[in-house]
């Protein structure tokens, strides 16, 4: 299964903010959309990603104010991305080795979606269920 197949099931909706937004504004959007990370996109260029982990480690634990801190102060700028043609194994390896939970999907340097660790795990579980059903059908025939 490829990233594109996950996106075709999940959808390609992407939520983004600007690096000049406050962290509080970013968290508000994340809460409203029920997402764990948000992309920072400016002029169609992916500039970074802000996750709940960034907030917890760079605002809460350092006793900063989310209403005063700007996104660019805490966002991750070294963003790990994938292509629509990449497979699940590659994504799992990236997420594991790079210790990230979200992978923006780029096509021709433009963000066309984002997948999370839960999207990848769900897809793998679905594949395993199909395999088990196929094997059960084969055995019982």
Automatic annotation (TrEMBL):
What this protein is called in its record is: CBS domain-containing protein
Tell me one Pfam family matched here.
CBS
Keywords (alphabetical) are:
CBS domain
> What are the boundaries of the signal sequence?
none
Source organism = Flavobacterium pygoscelis
Question: Which Gene3D superfamilies does the annotation name?
Answer: CBS-domain (3.10.580.10)
Q: Does the keyword Transcription apply?
A: no
Domain CBS per the UniProt entry, residue ranges: 8-66, 75-131
């Amino acid at each position: 299964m490829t990233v594109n197949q996950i996106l075709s099931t999940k959808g390609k909706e992407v939520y983004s903010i600007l690096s000049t937004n406050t962290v509080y504004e970013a968290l508000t959007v994340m809460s409203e959309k029920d997402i764990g990370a948000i992309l920072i996109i400016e002029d169609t260029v992916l500039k970074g990603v802000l996750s709940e982990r960034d907030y917890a480690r760079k605002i809460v634990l350092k006793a900063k104010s989310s209403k005063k801190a700007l996104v660019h102060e805490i966002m991750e700028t070294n963003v790990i991305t994938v292509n629509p043609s990449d497979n699940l194994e590659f994504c799992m390896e990236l997420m594991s080795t790079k210790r990230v939970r979200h992978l923006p999907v780029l096509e021709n340097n433009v963000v066309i979606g984002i997948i999370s660790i839960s999207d990848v795990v769900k897809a793998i579980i679905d594949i395993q269920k199909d395999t088990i059903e196929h094997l059960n059908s084969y055995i019982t025939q």
